[in-house]
From TrEMBL:
Protein name in UniProt: Endonuclease III homolog
InterPro entries associated with the record: DNA_glycosylase, Endonuclease-III-like_CS2, Endouclease-III_FeS-bd_BS, HhH-GPD_domain, HhH_base_excis_C, HhH_motif, NTH1
UniProtKB keywords: 4Fe-4S, DNA damage, DNA repair, Glycosidase, Hydrolase, Iron, Iron-sulfur, Lyase, Metal-binding, Mitochondrion, Nucleus, Transit peptide
Natural source organism: Blomia tropicalis
GO cellular component annotations of the record: mitochondrion; nucleus
Domain annotation HhH-GPD: ranges: 113-261
Primary location class: nucleus
Locations listed in the record: Nucleus; Mitochondrion
Annotated PROSITE patterns: ENDONUCLEASE_III_1 (PS00764), ENDONUCLEASE_III_2 (PS01155)
HAMAP family noted in UniProt: Endonuclease_III_Nth (MF_03183)
Length: 288
């Protein structure tokens, strides 16, 4: 095990000695004993609220002084370790070289399909939908049952089909066939929550309006003790109050890929993680 850690260290920190790396280790949370530092089983998330949570609603904690070291380590690991999100994530779901209105609608639909669904399944479903010319008009003209049949591999497909149908009709009647260009209006659409709305603003309108927090971002930032929260909405409010804005655009993509490849929900690969000696939830920090 130690040999593997040494190999990983050499791979990612070629210019640092083991001694230098250990110097970056922060103080431990004094309330935790060695035995208490375990990776807990992932808990079922509470149902998302559509309203952003005020930072006053959660107990705020500061980012640890070495948060940027940890962040840069994650950037480095993401360069070295491919993740599903890199080839089948939301930036690959919509067609780019088509009518911008249609492209933006495809972004919104793909994100509506993606909740509680693996990226591979969303990607495959979008490929099938786009074969039929996925547009506001197309969705408005087909029946809900026809749409259900096309998206039945994604989670909660019946509810999503109803939301997508209703959304297409609203876009046709109210927004001239386009999607809304503000976060506030997007969140009012059926089935669109804060994470989806922020990602839609970024992918469809190229505007960064917040940090999109899904289960990966929520889990990892709690493991790192950058936040101490119970819901993704609380995590979003906490992170937006603390993480410099320049990192907001990449934050979701970075941590989703890290969560898919290394900091997995169950059995995270702490022995392969560059943060294994400095992460408060590492299962391997005492091996050095
Ligand atoms: S050490 Fe383990 S729990 Fe901590 S960030 Fe790395 S993989 Fe996740």
């Amino acid at each position: 095990m130690t040999d593997r850690l040494t190999r990983n260290r050499s791979k990612y920190w070629p210019d640092k000695t083991l001694h230098e790396i250990k110097l970056e280790e922060p103080k431990m949370d004094s309330k935790l004993s060695e035995d208490e530092i375990v990776i807990s089983k992932p808990k079922k998330l509470k149902t998302s609220s559509k309203l952003p949570v005020s930072t006053k609603a959660v107990k705020s904690i500061e980012l640890p002084p070495n948060w940027k070291v940890i962040y840069d380590n994650i950037v480095q690991m993401r360069k070295e370790t491919p993740a599903v999100v890199d080839t089948m994530g939301c930036s690959h779901w919509a067609d780019k070289n088509i009518d911008p209105k249609v492209s933006r609608f495809q972004v919104l639909v793909s994100l509506m399909l993606s909740s509680q669904t693996r990226d591979e399944v969303t990607y495959a479903t979008m490929v099938e939908l786009k074969k039929n010319g996925l547009s506001v008009e197309y969705i408005d003209n087909i029946s809900t049952s026809e749409l259900e049949a096309m998206i039945n591999k994604v989670g909660f497909y019946r509810r999503k089909a109803a939301f997508i149908k209703k959304t297409a009709n609203t876009l046709k009647e109210v927004y001239d066939g386009d999607i809304p260009s503000t976060l506030e209006e997007l969140i009012k659409l059926p089935g669109v929550g804060p994470k989806m709305a922020n990602l839609t603003m970024q992918e469809a309108w190229n505007k960064v309006t917040g940090i999109a927090v899904d289960t990966h971002v929520h889990r990892i930032t709690n493991r790192l003790k950058w936040v101490k929260t119970k819901t993704p909405e609380q995590t979003q409010a906490e992170l937006e109050a603390k993480v410099p804005r320049e990192h907001w655009r990449d934050f979701n993509h970075l941590l989703v890929g890290f969560g898919q490849s290394i900091c997995r929900p169950v059995k995270p690969k702490c022995s392969e993680c560059l943060n294994c000696t400095i992460c408060p939830s590492s299962t391997n920090k005492y091996l050095f």
